[in-house]
Write a structure and sequence with these properties.
GO terms for molecular function: metal ion binding; nucleic acid binding; RNA-DNA hybrid ribonuclease activity. Keywords: Cytoplasm, Endonuclease, Hydrolase, Magnesium, Manganese, Metal-binding, Nuclease. This is Ribonuclease H. Endonuclease that specifically degrades the RNA of RNA-DNA hybrids. By secondary structure, the protein is of the alpha/beta class. It has two domains: 50 residues, 3-Layer(aba) Sandwich (Ribonuclease HI, Chain A); 120 residues, Nucleotidyltransferase, domain 5 (2-Layer Sandwich). The strands form two sheets. A five-stranded mixed beta sheet has the order 6-5-4-7-8, with helices on one face. Strands 2-1-3 form a three-stranded antiparallel beta sheet, with helices on both faces. β5 and β6 form a beta hairpin. About 3% of the residues have low confidence.
Length: 210
């Protein structure tokens, strides 16, 4: 008998929200000090819980971010870089993404909202958008993202999403196809790096809607 699907609420992690797979939940919480998350049997229950305080559903208190020797090993982010982030509305399913130049916090692009998306898709498109923009400008500066999943997709030149295409998100799937084609037909020297939230604080490209 097939297992019933689970829905995962992440109150504290690299990204917060409601995720429909353990892999997505784990990507936000694995190795994240003080992560707060829990599984629910239905999406309505998960959405309701996300709007509430996590300690109504799980015990304990979040731990402070690690400091000291490990933080020193991680170092500081490269200021001459482009940082991207995405936002996914758990109520509507709309997704948007943006990118900033880290040294000045200048916003370089904002895209969306797009209907019926996911956070991982937004992060993937944001990285590719940043790479294409920098390629056009002849710049090899790094691109930071706080999504390990999206960084992996970019590395494989394929958005491995389980999202189903609908009449509402046709535009989004067209963007995914174009992004994958760009990765397959262009070479770039820009390092795509992980934004270390637990040591550097919130991603500066964050939409600030938590």
């Amino acid at each position: 008998m097939a297992k019933k699907p689970k829905f995962y609420v992440v109150w504290r992690g690299r990204k917060t929200g409601v995720f429909d797979s353990w892999e997505e939940c784990q990507a936000q919480t694995a190795g994240f000090d003080g992560a707060l998350y829990k599984s629910f049997d239905t999406k309505p229950a998960a959405l309701k819980a996300f709007q509430e305080k996590p300690h109504l559903h799980i015990g304990g208190t979040p731990k402070p971010a690690k400091q000291g020797k490990l933080s020193a090993l991680v170092g500081n982010p490269i200021q001459d870089s482009l940082v991207v982030d995405a936002a996914w509305n758990t109520a509507t399913g709309d997704m948007e993404y943006q990118g900033i130049y880290l040294a000045t916090k200048q916003k370089l692009f904002t895209m969306g909202p797009y209907a019926d998306g996911t956070n991982n898709i937004g992060e993937f498109l944001a990285i590719v958008h940043a790479l294409a923009l920098l390629h056009q400008k002849g710049s090899n500066i790094p691109v930071y993202s706080d999504s390990r999943t999206a960084i992996g997709w970019v590395s494989k030149k394929k958005a491995n999403t389980k999202l189903e295409e609908t009449s509402r998100n046709e535009e989004l799937f067209d963007l995914i196809e174009r992004a994958e084609k760009w990765l397959q037909t262009h070479r770039y020297a820009n390092p795509v790096l992980k934004w270390e939230t637990e040591y550097w604080g919130e991603n500066p490209a964050d939409f600030g809607r938590k």
